[in-house]
């Protein structure tokens, strides 16, 4: 950054020097002609002295310019460092202020509400709140706030097919949909939340025959973009009503129809079997909350699946994924 302009200025000075020397030569007599015409030596000496003194002046001007340039560069660097420091402080202040305004997850929203309503009936509340996951921007999510300061953050919700889930890697990264209806929180906030503190996962599902089931995992974590949001899901709780469908997805990277990190060799799972949805596909899935919504169970790939609770081709009526700190 510093070298560029300095070099450019030096180049200009050198070019100017050369043309000045050329100019002074052209102004005098051509030296070879001067010799053959045997003009007295003193004239050549005078000219040489003049050139030397011009060069001397130019050189000292160059040195002066160079010194000035160096001190300007130092000044610019000083201002840049100060600006950088001020920006860092500003960012820290902003984070502090936003941190006080917004809780990092629904668990803290629940604790806050619990304090505020001490002594009154403490009913379960479902609502949309703005949270600020650590090192992430304020984000709207659905919170399920239960009795006793228990707050679950809803990270994915399906129930009617209003939202399109065949979306790009980029869209899955940022999240999409309506938190009060169908939506996905996004891989990036999910990563920030689950690597900030250890989280558990709960999945609640419903079939078209009215039956309901839930499962719970004690460990749920999503790695960062450098690891393609790799999933860690473990310690399935044995009394969960539906089977351990996520076992095969543990350790997988996140794939979408436009970014293929699955184990299928013939193409990509999202497009081939997943209805265009993004997921931690293997080859290809037992669980698929992001499939195409179907208003009947049906018997084909690409719907909302939880195997082994139901056949992998049977599409469920509703599915909600929630997380909470331990
Ligand atoms: C996404 O799904 C919608 C509805 O399910 C469909 O109309 C659309 O063609 C799909 N788009 C892609 C790119 O698959
Ligand atoms: C996934 O498969 C579809 C259909 O074969 C193809 O158009 C798309 O480019 C594939 N995506 C990737 C990331 O390979």
Explain this structure.
- With 326 residues, the chain is of the alpha+beta class.
- The protein folds into two domains: 66-101; 103-325, Gamma Fibrinogen, Chain A, domain 1, CATH 3.90.215.10.
- 38% of the residues lie in helices and 20% in strands.
- The protein contains seven helices and eleven strands.
- Strands 1, 2, 3, 4, 5, 6, 7, 8 and 11 form a nine-stranded antiparallel beta sheet that branches.
- A hairpin with a 5-residue loop joins strand 4 (176-177) and strand 5.
- Residues 1-37 have low confidence and may be disordered.
- The structure holds 2-acetamido-2-deoxy-beta-D-glucopyranose (2 copies).
- One of its GO terms (cellular component) is extracellular space.
- It holds the Pfam family Fibrinogen_C.
Domains counted in the coordinates: how many?
A: 2
Radius of gyration, in Å, reads 35 Å
* CATH class annotation of the largest domain: Alpha Beta
- Describe the sheet with the most strands: 9 strands, antiparallel
Spatial separation of the terminal alpha carbons: 48 Å
Q: Under the CATH scheme, which architecture of the largest domain would be assigned?
A: Alpha-Beta Complex
Tally the beta strands.
Answer: 11
Which overall shape is indicated by the principal axes computed on the Cα atoms? Answer: elongated
Assigned CATH superfamily of the largest domain = Gamma Fibrinogen, chain A, domain 1
Element-level helix/strand string:
HHHHEEEHEEHEEEHEEE
Total of helices: 7
Estimate percent helicity. Answer: 25-40%
Overall pLDDT = 86
Strand content: 15-25%
- Stretches where pLDDT is under 50 for at least 5 consecutive residues are 1-37
What structural class do the secondary elements suggest?
alpha+beta
> Which fold does the CATH topology of the largest domain refer to?
Gamma Fibrinogen, Chain A, domain 1
Associated small molecules: 2-acetamido-2-deoxy-beta-D-glucopyranose
Keywords: Signal
Pfam families: Fibrinogen_C (PF00147)
Protein name: Melanization interactin protein
Organism: Pacifastacus leniusculus (Signal crayfish)
